[in-house]
Specification:
The complex is a heterodimer of chains A (178) and B (293). Chain A contains no helices and 16 strands. Chain A has 178 residues and is mainly β. Classes of the chains: A mainly beta (178), B mainly beta (293). Strand 15 of chain A pairs antiparallel with strand 4 of chain B, so a sheet runs across the interface.
Chain lengths: 178, 293
């Protein structure tokens, strides 16, 4: 998931005309066998979101995930993009596969095509490659079962004291990022 | 900094006035090991969140961890902060200092709303009286507030100065189990404080004789005589500028005293060198009227 400052105005389109945003992940990530089905239920389906809305045209091919959309975006507008692979049979089983956990950071290029306009190539800053494993008696990604919160005050900009009670399901946690 | 729903909750997401990368005041219990530092979020609409990294703690046998921290509320009103906990494990090595295996996530969405200070925030002045003479190790300070009642489970926090840029070490703190939590924080170069947190086990009923008690704390000569006492009333808060009633101190230490004050030795040293001069006086009193140091 990332955010982009629109470098130009993306017009509203109809018919067979589309803008596109693509991320090339190459060999840094792999995918499970895509679009498998169990009767009428498909799983390991690529999913693309633009500003939180699911986009119908979302395809993975040759190490690239591409979203084609017709919505308008204003020049200079900040918009969010989220790419993933979902498995409706197991919500803990979401995302790409990281074949090599020894790559602590990677940089993935982003391509923008403005239909009727220019192409843009973005190289964001490197990000950490976090991963999780699934299966076994309990899902590791469910390591926090509950967090309760208490607070001291609700006044704007003032000193506060927060208390969290973090309930865990496992002992092999080194740290939290809040 | 924007929330997940696109609402801007911080114009200036600088928590506790600390620079990004600073150690952050957090706790899992008094003197229990934990280390936190924070990364300041952006003030733009890109929504990069403020991140607090929590490491070097022990997970209790019951797998229930009580994590506390000081916090600066959002600086926009009518917004809701959200808190997302991500747990990491596995082998840790730079730059993944807590491992890069994702072990869990929990999100607290919109736990409380931010109110305007109007009608919910107030300031005042109060007196805090030491129960023993200055710089006595067992000093308690009673801070009298005759203004408002406070409910069970709410907090009172005293920001007690330990180091001052002008005078060096001026205050002292010794944990004797009186407080629910403590934090040590440096707010600037040579400005070092301890934050003493009381969680009310009974409701506070204001009167001329009711007070919040903090200890053991002591201060040399009350050089800093206007320190901060925060009352967090859920949802309101108040900032009291606390000081020692100088008249009371003067009367207490001059009246009812008797006997001969003896001096064993006085050392005086001076250095004359323009504005770099200094003067040193050390008084070693006789044992009969020494206060414990």
């Amino acid at each position: 998931m990332f955010k982009i400052l629109a470098p130009a105005s993306f017009n509203s389109l109809t018919g067979s005309n589309y803008h596109s945003i693509a991320v090339y992940f190459g060999s840094y990530y792999s995918t499970p066998s895509l679009n498998q089905n169990s009767n009428d239920l498909y799983y390991y389906v690529p999913t693309c979101q633009l500003n939180g809305f699911l986009i119908n045209s979302c395809v993975i091919s040759s190490g690239t995930i591409t979203m084609k959309f017709q919505q308008s975006i204003n020049n200079g507008q900040i918009f969010s993009v989220r790419f993933s692979i979902v498995n409706p049979t197991n919500e803990a089983d979401e995302g790409f596969i990281l074949p090599n956990a020894n790559n602590p950071t990677v940089t993935l290029p982003v391509y923008l095509n403005n239909n009727g306009g220019s192409n843009y190539y973005l190289e964001p800053e490197p990000f950490h490659t976090f991963y999780r494993t699934i299966g076994g008696s309990s899902y590791p990604s469910m390591g926090i079962s509950n967090v309760a919160i208490a607070w001291g005050t609700q006044v704007q900009g003032k000193l506060n004291y927060l208390e969290f009670v973090i309930t865990l399901t496992r002992n092999d946690i080194n740290g939290f990022v809040l | 900094m924007v929330n997940d729903d696109g609402t801007k909750i911080y114009n200036n997401p600088m928590l506790m006035g600390l620079l990004s990368g600073s150690q952050y005041p957090c706790s899992v219990g008094i003197y229990q090991s934990v280390y936190c530092y924070y990364e300041q979020g952006t003030s733009t609409g890109f929504g990069t969140p403020t991140r607090i990294y929590i490491t070097d703690f022990a997970i209790p046998a019951n797998k229930s961890l009580s994590f506390r921290m000081l916090f600066t509320n959002p600086d926009n009103v009518d917004v809701f902060p959200s808190f997302t906990f991500k747990a990491f494990g596995g082998t840790f090595a730079a730059p993944s200092l807590m491992g890069n295996e994702f072990k869990g996530m929990y999100k607290i969405v919109d736990p409380y709303k931010i109110y305007t200070p109007v009608g919910y925030y107030g300031t005042g002045t109060c007196f805090c009286y030491p129960t023993t003479p200055l710089w006595t190790p067992t000093s308690l300070y009673n801070c009298f507030i005759n203004s408002n009642n406070q409910q069970i489970g709410s907090y009172a926090i005293l920001q007690w100065p330990l180091v001052d840029a002008t005078h060096g070490i001026i205050g002292d703190y010794n944990d004797v189990g009186m407080h629910y939590d403590i934090f040590f924080m440096s707010t600037a170069l040579n400005q070092y404080y301890v934050y003493l947190v009381i969680k009310l086990s009974t409701a506070y009923v204001s009167s001329t004789t009711s007070y919040f008690q903090f200890g053991d704390i002591r201060m040399k000569h009350h050089i800093v005589n206007s320190y901060n006492l925060y009352l967090l009333g859920q949802p309101w808060s108040q900032l009291w500028t606390a000081s020692v009633n100088s008249t009371w101190v003067w009367n207490t230490r001059t009246y009812n005293s008797y006997g001969q004050f003896s001096i064993d030795a006085i050392d005086v040293q001076d250095r004359y060198s323009g504005d770099a001069s200094w003067h040193y006086i050390s008084i070693n009193t006789g044992t009969a009227y020494n206060f414990p140091l």
